[in-house]
Amino acid sequence: MKKLIILIFLFSLNILYAYQWPIAGGFLTASFGENNADAFLKGIRISGYGSIVSPFLEGEIIYYSGEDSPIPSVIGNTKVLHHENGFRSIYGHLENSYKEPVVFMINENNQLGIVGNSGRSYEKSLFLMIFDTKMNQYVNPQIILPPSGDTNPPVISKVYIRRNGEKTELLPKNMQAPGKVEILAEIIDYGGSTHNTIKTVPYSISMFYLGNEINLIKHDTLKEERGELILQGGRPVTFDNLYEGNDFFLGEINLSSGIAYLEISASDYYGNNSNRTFQLTIE
Amino acid sequence: MGKKSFFATLFLILLLIFFLFPQSTGKEHFLVPERIINLDKTSSDAYSDELGQVSFALDNYFGYFTDELEVTYLEEKKYNVTISDSTFINYPKIPEILDVQNMKGEGRSIIETTGYPVIQGDRIAILSDSFISLYDLDGHLYWKKEILSIVTSLAITDDHVLIGYLDGYCELISMSGYTEFSFRPGGSRIEAVYSAAISSDGQYITVISGLDPQRLILLQNRKGEYKPVFHKELENEYRRSINMYFSQDNTMVFFENFEGVNLFDVNTKKVTNVGDSGNLKKIYKDVNRNLYSLLLSDNTGGILKILTPENKILLHKQFNGKTLLFKKRDDRYYIGSDNLLMYLKLVIR
Fold first, then answer.
1. Would the ipTM clear 0.90, i.e. be above it?
2. Strand A273-282 to strand A173-176: parallel, antiparallel, or no bridges (unpaired)?
């Protein structure tokens, strides 16, 4: 119920405020919650060589940092806007402007900066994070930005079963011994129809066994609890409990004699969906 | 001559006297150049056997020099460098391993990380967009913490780390990673911490927070708890991280303003302004002479000033250059400007 309220809240904000992509014609190169050097990515990366960056919503510049900042920043030259609805948008990896901003109230038609590669980035891209100050959490920008025209469903390329540390790839039909096993999956979402070589993570992943939902992962928000970031939307999960390299850890199931079906499902932000079902004969 | 014209003439005469015979400070201050080095032309052959105690990072270079400005170690920056008077880390744009080296360039420890390092005293803080961690110089991890907000300021003492966040709060973390104190100043239309500093004895914390208004807050440690004891609305509002630090004797706090530098006396709670316009690069307090030496930078270069606490300018010297450095040891002034390092001696007659 709480999740539903949050989603309705975000949807209603989307209607109230006209959000826009900060780069015209930009495309996604990294998605919210993906593995970013052994931590959740707290925003999205948008590519667009030499492109002008505009705010995703009208707002006030409340912070900027450059190369001469007393604190080094892996997101490089940064500008932060505060918005009327309590959101803060953070724009990183900007090109160094050498100038301190003099106008602080800017709208969607104004230039905020130029896409750069400052900080921990070789390629020019914009790093966009949206922070909800009322809920004290990062919101996935893709939930609230207009659809990008992506028509490609996520690809569930490999699903693994792990028993006593030994990992085997699942086939459509499998013979298994009874007992507890762990399920891992390699799932990729190709971010858009025109730049479909860039791998990102899907919006949601679910796993069903014997008709029961074992796990549901959704990339809605990131919140801090006791010094750890928790991915929320589906079942709350920490980075270490979700990622094993590039694989998703989907959970543990208990195999008992008989024939059972394991179903993995993944969908993107625009309703494109993929399913894979595995028959497990347990003897 | 009417009364009005008499006073007007008298005023003009007094004005003329004031400009022709300005009040003497009694002593004149000079900076005498002792040595200048072009770092582009300094090779490894010039290295001395002596160990340089003064660290520098300037333009594309960093290293160490002696009191007499003999360069004892010189290296080009990979992407950036964090350096103290004993240790440095020269790190690439996309680090995976950090090589902690001593002032001779010898390996001291290795830290595996994707963040950017900051050396302060005997500690190394690693900052990433999603975590902050603290190590000693031998690469032993004290703690690692996932963070939600942008870090706007960082101050490290022997026992604690004080972190300021753009979310509007700051926290004091012990060596074991425990948050001993968390403070959200509030009181402004926009909540944000733009700077936080802690005295070396841990007695005081100062915070610059918020927009509309932007405020300076002083917290004092009373019976193990930090309590706000003073706050002041600031005339200038900054929207970036602000340089702020305690004097070595912990009696003064220096922080930038649009007109130079604010000097905040933690005992009298008085804020006075010295200097001129520009970004504060570095300030030193000469306790014996009760003077301030500071370097302010702008788009064209830097201005070195020696001032009294009453803002009387004793020395004013301009330097051109995009990257600037200022270090001071007693009466020895070391100024860096792009690829030039200068050693100047203060002479008072």
1. no
2. parallel
Domain that residue B37 falls in: 26-43+279-349
Question: What is the maximum span of chain B, computed from C-alpha positions, in angstroms?
Answer: 85
Give the pLDDT confidence score for residue A110 in this predicted structure: 92
Q: Which residues of B touch A80 (CB under 8 A)?
A: 150, 166
Confidence bin at B47 (pLDDT 50/70/90): low
What element of type H or E holds B301?
strand B301-307
Of the residues B89, B91, B133, B148, the best mutation for testing chain A's interface (the one with the most A CB atoms within 10 Å of its CB) is B148
* A104 shares contact with chain B (CB less than 8 Å): yes
Q: Does A92 touch chain B (CB under 8 A)?
A: yes
Mean pLDDT of B283-302: 85
pTM of this structure = 0.88
List the domain boundaries for chain A: 2-144, 155-282
User: Are the Cβ atoms of A63 and B82 closer than 8 angstroms?
Assistant: no
What is the spatial distance between Cα B68 and Cα B308, in angstroms, rounded to a whole number? 27
- Reply yes or no on whether the pLDDT at A149 is more than 80: no
Burial (0-12, 13-18, 19+ Cβ within 10 Å), A211? exposed
Q: Is residue B55 part of a domain?
A: no
Protein fold of A2-144 = Glucose Permease (Domain IIA) (2.70.70)
Q: How many structural domains are present in chain B?
A: 2
